[in-house]
Records
---
Amino acid sequence: MKLLVVNTNTTASMTARIGEAARAAAAPATQIVAVNPLSGPVSIEGYFDEAFAVPGMLEEILKGEAAATDAYVIACFDDTGLEAARCCATGPVVGIGEAAFHLASLVAHRFSVVTTLSRSIAPIEANLVKYGLISRCARVRACEVPVLALDDPASGARAKLSAEIDRAKTQDGADAIVLGCAGMADLAAALALEHGLPVIDGVAAAVKLAEALVGLGHATSKRGPYARPIAKPFAGIFAKLSA
Ligand code: 5HY
């Protein structure tokens, strides 16, 4: 199967690391294609960035539809534009946030999420409510590490993340941790070993769920709100998106 993994920010080095994490989790027969939009924010931290990341992400989904893609992963932890992507896509579309929450709730009673900056907490909490999983989440925390600092070994990001996981264990009573950014994917295994509890990376979780859905022959339903967009003209800079 062909799986398109869309990093919804425009930082190519982060897309490369996300692609590596996805390939490490994927089955041998799964072809991973990791891309990012050409237009939009270099990182997504909060609602404003998220809004401007959606058109570029949808363009990548539409390109994927023209290239025989079996399924899609939205590789940004706030599941940027997930529902809109499902309207465009034939195959399943899995957000790394939703995937991680579901996997965590299968191996733990209550999990905590550790994301980057405080401004990213509210969108994640809103998604937990939307997905019906807020009761399984002890708390959404931030380690106050900007997204792009995760790429910089000298930033002390790993130590800050590990310290926040310690606080989640002692103060929240969390029995699993969900890493709240695609840029943390390569840290999951080592942090799980260090802290002695499941540490869930959304990129790997989403890859495995997408494989399972395709393997079971499930595609995005076109009966309800994920029906194909109504054909209509788009004006201005979005004219090229006219359905
Ligand atoms: C992410 N931002 O996974 C989110 C994390 C966050 O550019 N990739 C981003 O802080 O919301």
---
Amino acid sequence: MYTLEEVKNYCKLCQKCDLYKNRTNVVFGEGNVKADIMFIGEGPGYNEDIQGRPFVGVAGQLLTKMIKAINLDRKDVYITNIVKCRPPNNRNPFEKESEKCIEYLRWQVKLINPKIIVCLGAVSGRNIISPNFRVTMDRGKWFKKGTFNIIATFHPAAILRDKSKKKPAWDDFKSIKAKYNELT
Ligand code: URA
């Protein structure tokens, strides 16, 4: 068994895939290490790579607002990504990159042991819920794996690109809040 700090230190030295070659910083994740809710995005973008923190760009600001809208704060939850290094030009991570990186996420989930996991977008849903996950069909549904209650919603960047996703994403956040109230 490792501590979260140990896993982070290993991760910071990681060279298991080529994404390390272009990174400024590893973006391991941040927030409450005893969080009841964990948000999992896709991978760091430009700002995240520079700052070494997840969801700090425009999409991150929207995520922060949505978390506040359900009366929580970034400090209450834990936020991380499927891959910890920025894919070039924000492309989706390749499967072989996600497969190698997900070991770190498994440790994070095991050590933080959240009650609720929120997948942000299709890449996260495919890696966490099922390879057949389709965001338009499967968002807003609750899945149970072991003790984890898992839901996926639209990625905040997708909401920014397409305003029609705002209402369904807000419905998902209300469902997350209801589940949180039920479980805590
Ligand atoms: N998009 C993501 O999926 N993750 C981040 O950390 C930032 C943007």
